[in-house]
């Protein structure tokens, strides 16, 4: 049944609203009150304190369409973009949550009913995994839902081949945790798998669309598990992945939204082959970059801001790869606003800031990009049969030409080279030491730099001045962050 991305989002939220769930707005991509997390990367993040028993809400069931970024920290899909059919740096996770209310039976039943009746997916196309010893979930799939045994795969801590799944979820080393059940859609036989060692090796024939977490234990510091009095549910369905299924395409990059973004990118860059990997990369990156800026992250040399800078520079490099002569990336913001501004008005509210920031960042990088690429080429020539780029070269590219190490890796990946990350880190440490000893007034410039990390502010509550952003932290004094210049 064909549905647009917008229709799927609203159908999902409406289904759970009708089933007693409070519809809650997506939280910011900058996690509120959680310094352990780089970016919001799952629907449950904003409910973490409820799961931890530190907070209660007037509702026990909630549903959201959550903005997520997985481009740094523990969850990092940046290197998958352009290579797999199913990964983005920014995506929307549709979620439904039970805070000690319903548990396994209802969670499975809701997911199955929405997929097979709401979205009318053919039952034969769905396969599920359960954690190896989770007989309860197995029995529900088998006896309540009526799935044949060969469609229910038990997976232990070792990942399960084509079903790339580990099936035990934990919030951290301690705290709530429990087994998962994942629902995979079979796109049918085809050449979806990639060569061994590549990110797409596991194959994209069976694509994980829905992940149900059954939080039933509390893991204690000594490693033992204690049963939770009130077990909880955390569910996530990837919007772009279900859209691919419902729109009859294999790759997320062929859904309505990405087709439009890719077509626009191709038009701006005057590219005729719409299957170019770089088009997928750029159309992915414009979403994460725009949404991050809308939520108050600005390019900087540290922390969140540096992740943003790295994504922007990758996009710029991919533009160059397709012959971009001039600044182009910011020109996609208007199209993105048209596509997603209704669901996420912050995009429209912050449009000018997004465009200005992207434009400036690209202009800056263009000053050194070509020279850096030329330098890299000559270094590759010198390497001969050696396929590892020395740390000093990676550092020079970083220090002189503004190439983040992962960008260098991205440039050489398809040519079969890797970068010596340990060597690069050593050079970075040396530089930090040099900076420290150069400080005559006892100022630690590394600490000083950290200020630029604080480019996080309440996206709806900021002032933008020329070259400077006045940031406001909830509950603390306004902090003036470092200039966005390098
Ligand atoms: P995968 O194994 O495919 O990387 P995951 O197990 O890491 O996915 P979860 O953490 O279980 O993903 O997230 C819940 C759902 O969110 C997934 O089932 C999927 O539909 C979606 N999802 C996760 N990561 C991405 C991503 N990078 N891009 C698009 N959708 C994603
Ligand atoms: Mg993953
Ligand atoms: Mg998975
Ligand atoms: Mg999963």
Automatic annotation (TrEMBL):
Catalyzes the attachment of alanine to tRNA(Ala) in a two-step reaction: alanine is first activated by ATP to form Ala-AMP and then transferred to the acceptor end of tRNA(Ala). Also edits incorrectly charged Ser-tRNA(Ala) and Gly-tRNA(Ala) via its editing domain. The keyword Transferase does not apply. Belongs to the class-II aminoacyl-tRNA synthetase family. The keyword Cell inner membrane does not apply. Its cofactor is Zn(2+). This is Alanine--tRNA ligase. It is found in: Cytoplasm. GO terms for biological process: alanyl-tRNA aminoacylation; negative regulation of DNA-templated transcription. Consists of three domains; the N-terminal catalytic domain, the editing domain and the C-terminal C-Ala domain. The editing domain removes incorrectly charged amino acids, while the C-Ala domain, along with tRNA(Ala), serves as a bridge to cooperatively bring together the editing and aminoacylation centers thus stimulating deacylation of misacylated tRNAs. Binds 1 zinc ion per subunit. Residues 3-486 form the Alanyl-transfer RNA synthetases family profile domain. Keywords: Aminoacyl-tRNA synthetase, ATP-binding, Cytoplasm, Ligase, Metal-binding, Nucleotide-binding, Protein biosynthesis, RNA-binding, tRNA-binding, Zinc. It is an enzyme of class 6 (ligase). It comes from Succinatimonas hippei (strain DSM 22608 / JCM 16073 / KCTC 15190 / YIT 12066). One of its GO terms (cellular component) is cytosol. Its EC number is 6.1.1.7. GO terms for molecular function: alanine-tRNA ligase activity; aminoacyl-tRNA deacylase activity; ATP binding; tRNA binding; zinc ion binding. It catalyses: tRNA(Ala) + L-alanine + ATP = L-alanyl-tRNA(Ala) + AMP + diphosphate. Its main location: cytoplasm.
């Amino acid at each position: 049944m064909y549905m647009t991305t917008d229709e799927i989002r609203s159908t999902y939220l409406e289904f759970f609203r009708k089933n007693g769930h409070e519809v809650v707005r997506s939280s910011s991509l900058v996690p509120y009150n959680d310094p352990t997390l780089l970016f919001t990367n799952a629907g449950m993040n904003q409910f973490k304190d409820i799961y931890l028993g530190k907070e209660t809400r007037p509702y026990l069931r909630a549903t959201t369409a959550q903005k997520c970024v997985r481009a740094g920290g523990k969850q990092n899909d940046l290197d998958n973009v352009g290579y797999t059919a199913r990964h983005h740096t920014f995506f929307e996770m549709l979620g439904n949550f039970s805070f000690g209310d319903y548990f396994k039976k209802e969670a499975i039943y809701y997911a199955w009913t929405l997929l097979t009746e709401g979205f009318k997916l053919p039952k034969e196309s769905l396969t599920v995994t359960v954690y190896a010893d989770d007989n309860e979930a197995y029995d529900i799939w088998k006896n309540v839902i009526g799935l044949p045994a060969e469609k229910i795969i038990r997976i232990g801590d070792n990942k399960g081949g084509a079903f790339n799944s580990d099936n035990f979820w934990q919030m951290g080393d301690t705290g709530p945790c429990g087994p998962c059940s994942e629902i995979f859609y079979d796109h049918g036989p085809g050449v979806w798998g990639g060569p061994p060692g590549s990110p797409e090796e596991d194959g994209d024939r069976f694509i994980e669309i829905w992940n149900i977490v059954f939080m039933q234990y509390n893991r204690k510091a000594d490693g033992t598990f204690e049963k939770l009095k009130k077990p909880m549910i955390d569910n996530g369905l990837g919007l772009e992945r279900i859209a691919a299924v419902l729109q009859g395409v294999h790759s997320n990059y062929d859904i309505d939204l990405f087709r439009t973004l890719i077509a626009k990118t191709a038009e701006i860059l005057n590219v005729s082959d719409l299957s170019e990997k770089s088009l997928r990369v750029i159309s992915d990156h414009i979403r994460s970059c725009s949404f991050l800026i809308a939520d108050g992250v600005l390019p900087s040399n540290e922390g969140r801001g540096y992740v943003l800078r790295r994504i922007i520079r990758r996009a710029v490099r991919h533009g160059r790869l397709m012959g971009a002569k001039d600044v182009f990336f910011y020109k996609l913001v208007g199209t993105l606003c048209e596509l997603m501004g209704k669901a996420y008005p912050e995009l429209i509210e912050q449009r000018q800031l997004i465009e200005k920031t992207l434009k400036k960042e690209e202009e800056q990088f263009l000053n050194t990009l070509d020279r850096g690429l030329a330098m890299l080429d000559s270094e590759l020539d010198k390497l001969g049969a050696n396929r590892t780029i020395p740390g000093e070269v990676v550092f020079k590219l970083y220090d002189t030409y503004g190439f983040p190490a992962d960008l260098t890796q991205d440039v050489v990946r398809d040519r079969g080279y890797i970068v010596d990350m340990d060597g690069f880190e050593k050079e970075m440490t040396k530089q930090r030491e040099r900076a420290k000893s150069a400080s005559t007034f006892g100022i630690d410039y590394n600490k000083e730099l950290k200020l630029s990390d604080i480019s996080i502010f309440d996206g709806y509550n900021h002032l933008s001045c020329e070259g400077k952003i006045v940031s406001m932290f909830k509950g603390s004094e306004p902090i003036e962050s470092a200039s966005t210049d390098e």
